[in-house]
Specification:
It is built from one helix and 26 strands. By secondary structure, the chain is mostly beta strands. Strand 23 and strand 24 form a beta hairpin. The longest helix has 4 residues.
């Protein structure tokens, strides 16, 4: 089966079957697929001065569906005798003379890089979507595999608001965007990664030996975590921890979702010109492991910790 394009008067008198209707694209122009697909839509194999479009590929140009058909297409590449390297562009081209989309080659100018796409507006002329670049050395008799570089636009979906991210996974292609509960996510082909992420302030749980002296909060904005701890040591009068025993003292625990992938280290100021060295650990614990002095009752701690998850 040869390549086809619809709807168009030149194809089946404008009629569209149920099977063809379901392939009508409703998204942006480009190929159906993703940058991570196993095989490129266009390739060369040194069989001649030509490139090949794989069978059963699909695309869209200005609302019109295109398929390469059940057998591969062969696109000839014009000779180059200029003495300079030429770069041609494989495109999907809508020709408004027929209203059909066809795979075509836009020939470049030797020594000038890839040619510009032709995108004429209105009801006449042509409109092109890029698929691949072909490097044509001067005097080339064949096109080798390494002389074809994919440069496609892929069809993308609309931003999809969801209740649960997993509900949309089977409908998504790499590069699609999701929205859930105030956060936008980009789909990388296997998982959703947040674009804009603001959790707001979330309370931190202090260890039993500490009491709040202001805010003890954590917040994540766009993948950056900010922790603020304002606390006072001691719930028992005259409580003290000697300097040599402070290592491993847990001050607080931050919730799941804010925890770092590996230990993060910070300095923290204590009242009386003293200081701690702190770690924030993957289990969420904020732990003191070195101190300049003993830790005594009513010592205040001020810590502001920031890291990228």
């Amino acid at each position: 089966m040869a390549e086809l394009s619809w709807p168009a008067a030149a194809y089946n008198s404008g009629a569209v079957t149920d099977a063809e209707y379901q392939r009508l694209p409703w998204d942006a122009d480009g190929l159906v697929g993703s940058p991570s697909e196993a095989s490129d839509a266009v390739y060369a194999n040194s069989s001649g001065r030509e490139v090949h479009v794989r069978a059963d590929r699909h695309g869209r140009v200005l609302g019109r569906a295109w398929t390469s058909g059940g057998t591969e297409l062969t696109l000839p590449i014009a000779a180059n005798t200029s003495g300079l390297t030429r770069v041609d562009l494989v495109v999907l081209r809508l020709d408004r003379a027929t209203w059909l989309v066809r795979a075509a080659v836009r020939q470049g100018t030797p020594g000038s890089g890839a040619p510009a796409l032709v995108r004429q507006s209105g009801d006449t002329g042509v409109y092109e979507v890029p698929v691949a670049e072909v490097t044509v050395p001067t005097g080339a008799a064949v096109i080798a595999p390494g002389q074809v570089r994919m440069r496609p636009l892929y069809q993308g979906g609309a931003i999809r608001p969801v209740r649960q991210l997993g509900d949309a996974s089977g409908l998504l292609a790499a590069g699609d965007i999701l929205y859930q509960g105030g956060t936008w996510y980009g789909w990388n082909g296997t998982a959703a990664t947040p674009f804009v992420d603001d959790t707001g302030d979330v309370a931190i749980s202090l260890n039993a030996k500490w009491r709040e002296d202001g805010s003890c909060l954590v917040r994540r904005v766009g993948g950056t975590v900010d922790i603020e701890v304002n606390a006072i040591f001691g719930n028992i009068l005259n409580e003290v921890i000697f300097k040599g025993d402070i290592s491993g003292l847990v001050i607080a625990t931050i919730p799941v979702g804010f925890r770092p992938p590996r230990n993060k280290y910070f300095a923290a100021i204590l009242s009386g010109a003293r200081y701690f060295r702190l770690s924030v650990q993957p289990d969420g614990k904020i732990t003191a492991y070195w101190a300049s002095h003993d830790l005594t009752y009513n010592t205040s701690l001020r810590a502001s910790l920031t890291y990228v998850q």
